[in-house]
Amino acid sequence: MNSHLPFAKIDAIWVYLAASPLLGLTVTLVAYLIALNIYARAKHNPLANPVLIAVAIVVVALKITDTPYRTYFEGAQFVRFLLGPATVALALPLYRQWAKLKRSALPLLGGLVAGSLTAIVSAVGIASDIRL
């Protein structure tokens, strides 16, 4: 039996995925499943945020494989498309918690202002550091 056969199959799968838009979708889903597993093992510690970990895994995977972001994004558009309905689906749970949200309006507003200011300062800082 040829000991290189499993690697040949993996290589064939990689060649197919790298040439198709499925690469982005596959990388995104695998990264998120890994991140979700890490989050569960960390007993849902907020520092093990699965979205942040998944993004880091995707970045590392794209860098290691030298895959252009454009190629990745072609396949990941499906995930982006599903974010719209997922966001709308949050409306019902938010509506059900409306009384709690009103009671927590001040801390929520503080978090919104702090997050917005951080995003603005970060964006300006990053943009001012870009050399064209």
List key phrases describing it.
7 helices; 0% strand; extended; 132 residues; 2 domains; single chain; mainly alpha
Task: Please give a structural write-up.
With 132 residues, the chain is an all-alpha fold. It has two domains: 5-89, no CATH class; 98-132. It is 82% helix and 0% strand. It is built from seven helices and no strands. The protein has helices at residues 5-18, 22-41, 50-65, 69-89, 91-96, 98-103, 105-129. α2 crosses α4. The chain is extended. The mean pLDDT is 84.
Task: Break the fold down into its secondary structure elements and pairings.
Blueprint: H1 5-18, H2 22-41, H3 50-65, H4 69-89, H5 91-96, H6 98-103, H7 105-129
In brief, what are we looking at here?
The chain is mostly helical and 132 residues long. It has seven helices and no strands.
The portion of residues forming beta strands comes to under 5%
Residue share in helices? over 70%
- pLDDT < 50 runs, ≥5 residues: none
- Structural shape: extended
Our count of domains comes out at 2
What would the average pLDDT be, to the nearest integer? Answer: 84
> H/E series, N to C?
HHHHHHH
Count every beta strand, where a strand is a DSSP E run of 2 or more residues: 0
Tally of alpha and pi helices: 7
**End-to-end gap:** 56 Å
Q: What Rg, in angstroms, do the CA atoms define?
A: 20 Å
Main sheet attributes: strand count, strand direction, barrel closure: none
* Structural class category: mainly alpha
